[in-house]
Amino acid sequence: MDACTLGDLLDVVGGPSVRLQTAPAGLAVPVTEALLYDAHAPLTRAPGALLLAVGVRASAAGPLTRAAAEAGMSGLVVRGPDGPLAEAESAGVALLSVDEDAAWHHVHLLLASAIGARPSATGSGLGDLFALADAVAAAVGGATAIEDPRQRILAYSTVPGQPVDEDRRTGILGLQVPGSPANSEQYRVLFAAEGVVRLPALAGSDNLPRLAVAVRAGGETLGSLWVVDDGGLAPDAEEALAQGASTAALLLLRARAAQELARHQNGDLLRRLLDGTADPAGAAHRLGMGLGPDGNPAPVRVAAFVLDSSVSAADVEQTALRLLDLVRLQCEARYGRHAVVLVDGVVYALLPALGERGGAPRRRTNSHRGLAEDIVRRAGQALRVPVRAGLGDVVGGLAEVRASRDDADLVLRVLGPELPVATVEEVRPRVTLLRLTEVLGERRELSTGGWRRVLAHDAEHGTEYARTLVAWLDAGCDMAGAARLLAVHANTCRYRLRQAQQQLGIDLDDPDERLVLWLQLRTLGGLGSRH
Fold it and tell me: What is the pLDDT of residue 322?
């Protein structure tokens, strides 16, 4: 398990709970434990520790800061904002603060839990399972495998000289137990039993019997432990395997906790990237998204998924959480460890986009779009509600994630049942008009003009001047083209346009006025492409 750094710790507990005042040695310093200061006991050497200044006012914690530095500690935690900032910077230790009314025992528990749950570099936390598999294999006398409830192989022994059969070889190569009716029956027997079971060899040329036990914790089945029985197992093999299952349960629970913590960290980090408040360099290291082959920041894209508005208010929160799980599962299956987060009812995923710039951009774009389409299809089936997905533009690194998120949000706003998935490039005209509508509506001088008189006249007199004007302008000021769009005679179009000019003071001979009129009617007037 990798050492927890100050940066890792702040990713988990930083913000309202624990605030960083200064870190003169940087955020990469290791943090090994959280210690409560005891004024009646000597301060012993504790490299990497965070010292909680219990009983010491923040403004009077200067001497304690220097003492912590002499003891090799990484930092000091005080209550309140007026801590010894200058002393901490001079001593080279980090200074963190918590609220003045924070309970020290709660702060200690928070920090100790975050430090102890630091996930491994792979994010899986399964490294110790391989060591356990080797230990069980040595004690029992047979090749060992540890599986999850879905019959995926999480770890296997590598003790030399132990016989293996075709089923084990195939399973290890694919990290998945081969499926068959006979195999399914053995798992049924195994999970129905309370202890170790002996299972006969499956039909095959060299398959061997098995000794197996379910791995459980608190009544929940976490997986199973299997040993190949070549006839030479130890006399106490069943007892050793049962003990191994107890240890495996603890390791699987710890691995699950590490995985959930990694997901929480990555999700929180993505949330800050989306709103532009995260440090891109630190985020790139944490998410495993560094530089591309060209030495530049690796390009990324934001994908956004949202439930159809038909979901009832009572169900939307729970359904959105299920959508979050589904998007995360599919992204992790495609890209491994992944950042996915739910923000205000929208599920955002950060997609690596190496290959977008140069190389084969179309193929990579199709890959992202294909993933989004697959998620939308699966979500529709699993949640029984339509889901839509918008993909932002590919941007040059994590510093530009907010721009891609803005794109994805705009795409979501122009999607509908006829187009549930799209990239921003596919709907660029629609999102451009949408943004123009917002900009025009915000500025009085841009939202006034003859278009209002046209719409008001139509509403009062039942005329169709606005539709005729938009059709004529859409047709490039061609009367016959406008007539075709409206399915009327060209003379009708000509009459309407002449009346609009005479009654409403519209100057259609001025190209600038024509352009502004068309833009305002198409956006602010809400006519769109309708004629």
Answer: 87
- Chain segment 231-278, per-residue pLDDT in tens: 999 999 999 999 889 888 888 887 777 667 767 777 788 888 888 888
Side chain identity, residue 488: V
Cα separation, 56 vs 39, in Å, equals 9
Task: Provide the β-strand partners of residue 212.
Answer: 197, 226
Q: How far apart are the first and last CA of the chain?
A: 65
Residue 357: CB atoms within 10 Å: 14
**Separation of alpha carbons 239 and 306, rounded Å:** 51
pLDDT at 389: 94
Do 55 and 32 meet the contact criterion of CB atoms below 8 Å apart? Answer: no
- List residues bridging with 147 in a β-sheet: 153, 224
Residue 357: its pLDDT value, please?
44
The 10s digit of each residue's pLDDT in 271-327 is 888 888 887 777 776 776 666 655 667 888 999 999 987 666 567 788 888 898 888
Give the span between the Cα atoms of 291 and 333, in whole angstroms: 22
Q: Please list, residue by residue across 147-179, b when 16 or more beta carbons sit within 10 angstroms of its beta carbon and e when fewer do.
A: bbeebebbbbbeeeebebbebbeebbeeeebee
Instruction: Judge whether 385 and 311 are in contact, CB under 8 Å.
Output: yes
Name 79's bridge partners: 98
Tokens of 63: 């001497």
Q: Which amino acid type is present at position 273?
A: L
Three-state DSSP at 147 gives strand
| Coil, helix or strand at residue 63 | helix
Q: For the chain, what is the radius of gyration of the CA atoms?
A: 32
CA distance 493 to 474: 13
